[in-house]
Specification:
7 helices, transmembrane, membrane, single chain, 241 residues
Length: 241
């Protein structure tokens, strides 16, 4: 099983657990303490955030905790204020989109399916109104998953851009390094050795015993060396542009 599918499975299980737990609390006398429970969840959330900032916890655990807190908080509010006829039912739409953005897109579909299961376990107060609510939620789920996939693609593209920028910067640094080496070579060994060769050829031309033919060849060689020197200087200027 790939890391992605494992992550999706874990996030889906946490989402289902959070929704189921909030439903259970709402249907028991514990619901009278929903405000206190919410306060404890908020306190835990702040504590976990603090521990992550201080690097006592792995940042990846933040996503898991976010999914649990958001799923639990929204569903607890929903089930303690009328369930599927609650005036804040619209928060479940935001929950699906939020889950799709911070987790795998499939997790939002799992959340919608869990809501559908809980819908069938809930006594009907206004059948058609509740049917419309759950149908709208199931219709929103694929859209939220699609947005989640698009968001993931955007993040991947941004990572690719960052990699390209990094590679480009390395390439620029390499070019600068090579330019520096060329400048050192043309101003150092290249120039000095050509000057030495030219001096040596000049000394040879002063030899009275040297034939005219050989002097002509030495002059040609002298000119070629000078042209080589000029081409080296030209290359240096081209690289420096």
């Amino acid at each position: 099983m790939s890391n992605l599918s494992k992550k999706t499975l874990i996030h889906s299980a946490i989402t289902a657990f959070a929704l189921g737990l909030s439903y259970f609390i709402a249907k028991t006398p514990i619901s009278e303490y929903s405000l206190q429970i919410s306060g404890v969840i908020v306190a835990l959330y702040m504590m976990v955030s603090f521990l992550i900032r201080k690097k006592f916890l792995n940042p990846t655990s933040r996503v898991v905790f976010d999914i649990f807190v958001f799923s639990f908080a929204v569903s607890l509010l929903l089930f303690t204020t009328g369930g599927f006829t609650s005036p804040i039912f619209f928060l479940t739409y935001f929950l699906l989109f939020g889950i799709a953005l911070i987790s795998a897109p499939a997790t939002s579909i799992v959340a919608a399916l869990v809501f559908a299961i809980l819908f069938f376990l809930t006594p009907r107060a206004d059948f058609w109104a509740e049917i419309l609510q759950i149908v709208s939620l199931l219709a929103i789920a694929p859209i939220s998953a699609m947005f989640g996939r698009q968001y993931i693609e955007i993040l991947k593209n941004e990572q690719k851009i960052q990699v390209l920028k990094s590679v480009g910067q390395d390439f620029i640094e390499e070019i600068k390094s090579q330019e520096k080496e060329v400048n050192i070579w043309t101003d150092g060994d290249f120039r000095l050795k050509l000057v030495k060769i030219q001096k040596y050829l000049s000394e040879l031309l002063k030899d009275p015993n040297l034939s005219t033919e050989k002097k002509g060849k030495i002059n040609d060689l002298y000119e070629q060396i000078y042209e080589l020197f000029l081409s080296g200087m030209k290359m240096k200027k081209e690289i420096g542009k």
